[in-house]
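User: Sequence in, structure out. Go.
Assistant: Echoing your sequence, followed by the structure tokens.
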Amino acid sequence: MKLKYFICLLLLTGLCSARINAATQINTPTVSGTWTLEGSPYYIHNNINIPQNSTLTIKAGVEVVFMGHYGLSTYGSLSARGNEKQKIIFRSNDTTGWSDLYSTAGGWQGITLENTGQTDFSIPTFEYCIFRDMKKSQSYGLFVSTTPLFYINECEFYHNITDGILIHLYNNIAPSPTKLKFTNCIIRDNITGIGMFTLYKDSVYVQNNKFYNNNVNFGFGLFNNASTNDMSNNFLLFDNNELYNNTTSELGGGIVNCTQGGKAKISNNYIHHNTTKKNGAIFLQSKSSLVENNLVINNKQVLEGIYCGISDGGAGIQLLGQNLDNEVPGRNTHIVRNNIVANNHSAVGGAGIWVQHCQATVVNNTFINNTSKNFGAAMKSGGTYCKIRMHNNIIFGNKLIDLPNDTAYNNFQCIAALLEFSNNLIDYHPNTTFLPANVLGLASNIYDHNIALIASTAGAGVSYDATNANFSLAANALNCINRGNTNAPDHGTLDFYGNQRVTGSGIDIGAVEFQGATTGIRNPGADELVQVFPTLSTGSVTIRNLSPKAISQISLLDLSGRILNTFNTNFSGTYTLQMGQYPDATYLMGIATEAGTVYKKIVLKR
């Protein structure tokens, strides 16, 4: 009997050992079929390609290991779809020498998909994949696709190096509409010329991604979307992404860039703590754009002096016209609304917003505590046909760090064919020396050295971290609540947090509409006695109880009203709720007070 058990144990041990040591050697130039977990890892000993009319399917959990500086090209079809627990990994066998860009040691060449004709846009070509250790000098792209319909989801790109383009996705020549979806991906810790470059004839959707710790040393910006020509109507949606701790080089480019042509919507992004040499965090030269509901904080543009003359400077939002000589109907128009732009710094000017040779409607934004070496810490503009309409904005606490540091010089330096103001809150009256002669509406602004916000940063500049600040209006912000111009064009129906834009007798000034009643109207009710911050959180939310009565219970709900969890609290003062276990989304927080339940909207974004 003991001998029988011993033989069974040996057999089981042999089977486990065979599984652990399973591997497949790839020595042929062409590949197709199915790569399975049972055959993994797949060791690649030469350049490989998928021929036309052939398909390679890579199953979940497979490792593809390149044994030298080889690459994968496909002229047929490729499908690599892992899952959350079993990701597909593409990597180098040995990373010794990876950091030497001009050596082939330590990395593999990358992946190229050549116009492979995917027809089902609902199914990702790559999902839950990891791409690491790619390297190549003067590369057209380490990860390249010319597929007319291309979808990539839940993938991660890190530890890759090139002086060219890291991720190059384009097709502007196919006879049918060409489209891209790039969602829920992470691009981190790469050294590159351009981080990601896209060009599609119809539309590009870049949503719910994270870009961080990337060093863009050799090219034009971290993310760059292009068009076929300056009158193209292709569309970019760049939405709900987070970009932080990235750097760009003196060659130019910001963090999010659009070159000439096309229409862009840049919305709901969290862009913070980036360093650019020449340009703003958002740098647009598209035919038209809508820039809304972005949180742009603690970014710095560091290269001093004038190099180009028309595109130097900016730190937060930067808009540049396509045609620098003439006003062209139907292009160079931008709407900027409901953004919070705070504690950014420009070594040239225009740390809040910089507008050159285009038309911009700038409405219901909060430009606060930005700094600039030269004039125009809040706004700088130029160009003989530049036209700017500024309505319902908070322009407060912006400072020059160079002489003259008189408060009258802080906010504006504008050259424009038209500059129109209405109902902005501005801390100091502008110095008209730095405004065009025909400026309109200066008298309609509210000039006040005081502002009441829930939890603003304590001072101006990048040294004051705005991560946990709350720039919402406090109940006693009587110089902002109901004081805006309701007839201002393009203010939209929702505010920065997605709340109804007009809740009182008029529209408010700034990016956030006050949701309760002011102390000037009635005594504080339940809503005024509860504060929640930050309303854009990376993991924890603090509830401040201003009432002498304890808060007994807090409920967390999704936007449909479904209760996700209930917390029995019974606290006075402050209470911190940890939300790290919940996915990034917008939630409602129901806070039970003696006067009733107060609902506050919070956004969890990591």
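User: And one key feature?
Assistant: The radius of gyration is 27 Å.
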